[in-house]
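U., I forgot to send this yesterday:
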Amino acid sequence: MRDDLTPVITELNLYVDDAALELLPRREAMRLQVLPMQVQGSRLVVAMVNPTDLLKLDELRRITGREINPARADLRVIERGIQRFYGERDDLETGTGLIEPGLVVQADARTGLGLREAGEDAPAVALVNDLIEAAIMSRASDVHVEAGATKLQVRLRVDGVLFDHQSYPTELHPPVLSRIKIMGGMDIGEHRLPQDGRFDARLRGKVFDIRVSVVPSIFGETAVLRLLPKTSTGLKLNELGFAMDHLAMMEDLVGRPHGMIFATGPTGSGKTTTLYAILTRLDRVGRNVVTVEDPIEYQLNRATQIQVHPKIGLDFAAGLRSLLRQDPDVIMVGEIRDLETLRMAIQSALTGHLVLTTVHCNDAASGAARLIDMGAEPFLVASSATCFLSQRLVRKICPECRTDDQPPRELLEMLRIVPGSYKRGRGCDQCRGTGYFGRTSVFEIMMVNEVIASAITRRESAGEIRRLARTLGMRGLRDDAIEKAREGTTTLEEVVRAVWVEEG
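Result:
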């Protein structure tokens, strides 16, 4: 392609027809920074910053099913064209808006009119809506809108890993952040302090609770949006990735009338989803199920769920104290954060309730030590706890591009395993070239039997408790993850990234 013959598009000669727009969705035009202009027989004329970008041309050809005639245009011309022409189409269509007015939480009266108008600038509104739609369509859990010295960078967290999604000129930073603040019900006149907010978004019949955090940084404010589906009740126990022996243990625990089940692990390891799967498995007609959470991640039928509000004095301890007056049979406490909450949860388990909760520590054996460090009496922990469960999330190999793999010798030596039959993903359109699609959990489950209870009462170290549990047959996180790699569910590289730890 001779670059000197490529047509140059300016705002003066910019013409776009509807047939061209129908071939390329708005979110793809935003992502690729291109503007479809005209259909000429079997070819599509597309304005782009770099008409010699072969990878982008191939992707456009794949998406549209047409050969591409590229034209050169400045990024500003392309962005204005996207906002103008796609915006006109959106005005003509009904029911296509991502954010429904009745669901958006507006800012309060302390935001000035002029500032509100800045945040409601039409390009900013469309851009933020497109970002949220792209995140939902990409199965992203988080959207990072980051201020930089030369650009506004957007990243999406998909299957636990951040990817660059798009970058924009720095001039868009103020209106985009103002728009996010308005949607989250925050003060758009405050730029010095961190703020938190939330709003609901609906896409194709599904409602998402979007939690927003805005913090000041060296180049301006940065926002992170966490997307939580409100219309889902989570997965079932047999869909989480439990091995057959682990699943049998969980079924046994679900059938017990009282005791405490502790889910441990870092933030984002799937602990709450596992607890919800247990609640879903329970009889919620014959038993009264109550929860206190921050935030409420899933809506559960036939359960009373309380949202924590620390600013008004409704913390976990206050919420649990109230729930105990609701004649509960099963109690879920989103997280044990303080000694008062822990003592009430233990007392509830000892008085005939089934209690599910989470605690932050690295593995199952460290759970009891963590509770004792918080101030709980060892004999009460040993008497109330029935199980400490630890988990991590690993990415699953994409089923569309899965192929045989021979891991490098260094990796096998690091994990201290012998060569065998393994799989990996080559990378394809479905997985966006990553080789992974979706996630599953890996677990270790430490049942609190007489041996483990005695060790907890004696205040044994986490290392000694782990050693005892392994002699009794507990399979560690690393072992469970390696087994999933041997089964072809994940890769050994993912084992190292997500769960590999030195085990004494």
